[in-house]
Design goal:
This protein is of the alpha/beta class. The strands form 7 sheets. A 7-stranded mixed sheet has the order 2-1-13-12-14-15-16, sandwiched between helices. A 5-stranded parallel sheet has the order 4-3-5-8-9, with helices on both faces. The longest helix has 18 residues, at 53-70.
């Protein structure tokens, strides 16, 4: 079981309560209030299935009683679901029952899932029977057979077989007294998708999430009645708050997409009059193309938040020009400190919205010295009322926090006008060639404008002569793929030093990404270093 705050200090707790960012109410209180005051208000749209406040409260209550009958308060309940409305029932049911909810990406498989379930000591997991051709029920049978304390497996939208049926679970529930909740208790554990080593369990409380939602309300122009298109996975912090938290805390409606399809997304946004969307670079880029093809400028769209991956400034400008009524901005954050910057959405911020990653909202940010940082930049350290309350394993905290409670992000940045953050790359995503530090992100932001490049990743691979070689892995665009010489010319034209130019070009059909759209550079690097060429790559323009 996971209970209580693991790391914070009393002064910051007092400050968060004084500012109203932390409160003594929980999402369980807000769900009950919404069911009573606005029972017929739609909170979730999932295809043809529409869920109002009263229905959500009734189903979540049934789920809470089922959980309370099966496990002690504070136990971990996992779900591995697409963006389906049933996930909200599980999420809120766990909240009502005083459990700790653990969203898991549906793209994970046996080994990754086994680690999470054992590490979190999950007591129940809710899954689809099958989804996108994968048999989840069979996978869970394999995984749980090897666990010392296997969780109960609940199956949604498919025959349950040897597992528990979701509908039956909700229909045959003994009424039990549900616990009093403490808003400072841990209520969610999310596993990071680190590039190396085992994932870390990030702990959030009721109040850390509440502070985050207050920040969105105050800085992202969110009003009651607004509608979010939720295409990002609900297993990530972003997708979960837009789907489960904002509808109750801010009075919005979540329009769910189980799988991102740009044409369908543009159609849904127009049909449902969506006002807000947040997503990584590919979501915005593809939505622009789809909207243009459909002949719509999405007149109801007010805000698009772009983050979670490298965001080219040219893309933000293009989107802001095309979506005439929308504010489009870059933001920066992490699972540990969600929405560290809120973007640049104030009047007169248009240039900063494209060229920077925005300004802090409720978080404090400072730049610390790091050997990999260029002059005038440093490693981002952040703390705030929306930050994690700890890691599931205490030994994960040793190198993650400063003595005064700032989270060490591992990201490098510089400041513009002493206010706006510009992320320049990862401390570990630095290419050191001939003793010179090269930021891949700086190069990517420039080269991505080339018409022969649809997607791009600059990675470093070992080189006996220079220490590291910079390799440009390119997904082709509409024009011919540029070679090394042409890339060098593009960088030179844009005022980038010649020593930063890639020495090698490789053409791939696609870049590996996680479900949030983040390019997995560790996989690219491993493939390039493999002695046997991968089937998806062909060399081009190698110098």
């Amino acid at each position: 079981m996971i209970r209580g705050i693991t790391r914070t200090d009393q002064q910051r707790v007092a400050d968060a309560y004084a500012a109203g960012l932390w409160v003594h109410r929980t999402l369980a209180d807000e769900l009950a209030a919404a069911a009573e005051s606005t029972p017929q208000r739609e909170v979730l749209i999932d295809g043809t299935h529409r869920v109002d406040c009263a229905q959500l409260h009734r189903q979540a209550s049934a789920m809470a009683h089922a959980m309370a009958a099966r496990m002690p308060t504070g136990s971990v309940v996992s779900f591995m679901l697409p963006n389906w409305h049933e996930a909200a029932v599980v999420y809120l049911g766990a909240t009502l029952a005083g459990m700790v909810v653990n969203p898991i990406l549906p793209s994970l498989r046996d080994r990754e899932l086994s680690f999470i379930l054992e590490d979190a000591d999950t007591r129940m997991i809710v899954i689809p029977g099958t989804f996108r051709g994968h048999d989840y029920a069979a996978m869970l049978s394999r995984v749980t057979a090897d666990l010392p304390a296997p969780p109960e497996v609940v199956v949604v939208r498919s025959p349950a077989g040897l597992h528990t049926d979701y509908s039956t679970l909700l229909e045959s529930v003994p009424s039990r007294a549900l616990p009093e909740l403490d808003a400072d208790d841990v209520r969610m554990v999310l596993y990071t998708s680190g590039t190396t080593g085992r994932p870390k369990g990030v702990l959030h409380s009721h109040n850390s999430i509440h502070a985050l939602i207050c920040q969105l309300r105050d800085h992202w122009h969110v009003d009651p009645g607004d509608r979010f298109l939720v295409a990002s996975p609900i297993a990530h912090i972003g997708g979960s708050i837009y789907a489960f938290e904002c509808p109750l805390l801010l009075g919005t409606t979540a329009v769910l997409m189980e799988r991102w399809d740009a044409a369908e997304g543009a159609h849904l946004m127009a049909a449902e009059r969506c006002t807000h969307m947040a997503g990584a670079t590919p979501f915005l880029d593809q939505l622009l193309t789809a909207a243009d093809t459909a002949g719509t400028r999405l007149p109801d769209l007010e805000v698009f938040i772009c983050g979670g991956a490298s965001v080219p400034p040219a893309l933000i400008r293009r989107a802001a020009d095309y979506f005439e009524r929308a504010l489009v901005t870059r933001v920066y954050g992490s699972t540990e400190v969600p929405v560290t910057t809120v973007g640049a959405l104030r009047p007169g911020d248009a240039a900063r919205a494209a060229d920077t990653d925005g300004r802090p909202g409720i978080a404090e940010i400072r730049l610390a010295h790091h050997d990999a940082a260029a002059e005038g930049s440093g490693e981002i350290e952040a703390r705030g009322p929306q930050m994690l309350v700890g890691y599931l394993r205490a030994d994960d905290e040793a190198e993650s926090f400063t003595s005064d409670g700032f989270f060490r992000t591992g990201d490098l940045a510089r400041l513009v006008d002493d206010e706006y953050l510009v992320v320049t790359g990862r401390a570990k995503d630095i290419i050191i060639r001939n003793g010179e530090n090269i930021s891949p992100k700086e190069i990517e932001d420039v080269l991505i404008t080339h018409p022969g490049i649809a997607e791009l990743a600059i990675v470093g691979v070992p080189d006996e002569r220079t220490g590291e070689q910079a390799c440009a892995v390119i997904v082709p665009g509409a024009a011919a793929v540029p070679d090394v010489a042409e890339l060098r010319d593009v960088l030179s034209t844009n005022g980038i030093a010649r020593f930063k130019a890639p020495e090698r070009v490789v053409v791939w059909d696609a870049l590996p990404k996680n479900d949030a759209g983040k390019v997995l550079k560790h996989q690219i690097r491993a493939a390039l270093m493999s002695p046997a060429p991968t089937t998806q790559t062909t060399a081009s323009g190698v110098r």
